[in-house]
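Hi R.,

Here are the chain sequences for the assembly we discussed:
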Amino acid sequence: NAGVTQTPKFQVLKTGQSMTLQCAQDMNHEYMSWYRQDPGMGLRLIHYSVGAGITDQGEVPNGYNVSRSTTEDFPLRLLSAAPSQTSVYFCASSYTDLTSYEQYFGPGTRLTVT
Amino acid sequence: QQPVQSPQAVILREGEDAVINCSSSKALYSVHWYRQKHGEAPVFLMILLKGGEQKGHDKISASFNEKKQQSSLYLTASQLSYSGTYFCGTEIYGGSNYKLTFGKGTLLTVNP
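And here is the predicted structure of the full complex:
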């Protein structure tokens, strides 16, 4: 079991560039989510999905797009990167009911936008 | 609304105890605790549900005070491995059970 994997580990973008952060899990979890972590801010939810074809916005969705075509994969797209999107991005997965089940986090992607 | 964690940071010597609090202005349905070591991903510790139950494993336990909308994490006889940042994540009563709102974290440092 690889758990939750994320690629790339590090990325530097110029303002205005686009890119996709990849996330995959092999635990057959229905729920997947993306968080960003900034110094002193904790973890903030960007988008989440409760199954293939179903996504919804979290706390800070602006500037990010997601789609979920399979149970395993949940990519995060930055359409036009801005310096404010410099952050560490974590993908997580869980069984659908967050109330009762833990989230498993990937190792993170450190993104710098110049 | 983001829960408030206190203290922001705490330094202990090995073997000492610590309490980390997580408070919300809204009625809570559940509180989730995670620990994150520097440069690593957050790792799950425990979930407490509405009802005021107390949970624990090893020397780390937690309580949920429904009346105060507060959860406390207790670390007893701390070990060096307890060092890291502790986050609470909250589910609001009546809100979505697909969204956790995390606090800003409490940095715990355990020295020899």
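DSSP finds no helices and eleven strands in chain B. The first strand of chain B starts at residue 4 and ends at 6.

Let me know if anything looks off.

Best,
T.
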